[in-house]
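Open question from group meeting: does this chain pack into something compact, or does most of it stay loose? Before anyone orders reagents, we agreed to write out a predicted structure and look at it together. Recording both the input and the output here so the notebook holds the full record.
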Amino acid sequence: MTVCLVLLSAVALTAAVPAPRALTRAEWPEREPVVALWVWQCLVATVLLCCLSALVLGAAAVFHTVRAQVFAPAPPGVTEAYDLSAAPPWAAALTLLLACGAAWTTAMLARELVEARRRRGQARAHLRERAPDLPAGLPSARGPLLVLEDEYPDAWWMPGNPPQLIVTTGALHRLTSHQLDAVLTHERGHARAHHDWLLHLSTALATGFPRIPLFSHFCDQTHRLVELAADDTASRRCGHLTTALALIELNQHRGVLSCASSNRLLGERVDRLLEPPPRLGRRHRALTTAVAGLVPLLPLLIAFAPGLNALA
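Structure tokens returned:
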């Protein structure tokens, strides 16, 4: 069991510290934001699985009740292969630390979901005030697309049940039909990919563990990459130039496209659309996706290796 815990710790540290720093310095994620999001999720899954596997093994070694429950269906040879009776003294401290981490992670995720639900409720209440229901007997105007009477040009997607695309009359007046199609396609790209869940997860982990490089980089990169991925969805349908012009028309009055602006992401998105970077080849994308998908299997292989050897 000691070897398993050491290997799990090594894999978790590798995925949590050097791997995210190397990924943030790479240039290919800007070209393939969807693949990059998958790689980030695989790294996070690897760390979480390492911690969960180490927690289960440590708890089985420290507490006889847990050991009996975990290894109840296994043959006696499997239990002997893990050598749980010879657990090192630091196993109890590691188990307690991991248990606290698991409880804290669960609390942060629950807090983020509750806060997100509260924010959506407030936003929907605000929308009801700005777009009240029609009188009884008239057909309802509510649906997947809601138009607000507002001279301020804006468009956004509100997740929930049901999800809604909101666009203001200012945006309808300012944008051409092709530009409006690009903006709505961008927002639908967020909805189809369920980017809101990914943003909630990254925010919760970064809030709960701000000193872990993986989670802080995961949060920053997720907020950036989901926008690039949605831009690619819109540009494939409407064209790079149309999508870039739509972003400019919607945001130039806010000053976020100026060089002095602190919000540089929008300017980078426009530059990327006007000069699309060369994309990775299909084989390279497939290889990167496959390798990243195999990485979370390492904790499982390490945890189950003694039992599989005993059965063999």
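Observations to bring back to the group:
Residues 63 and 175 are 65 Å apart (CA to CA).
Strands lie at 145-148, 155-158, 164-168.
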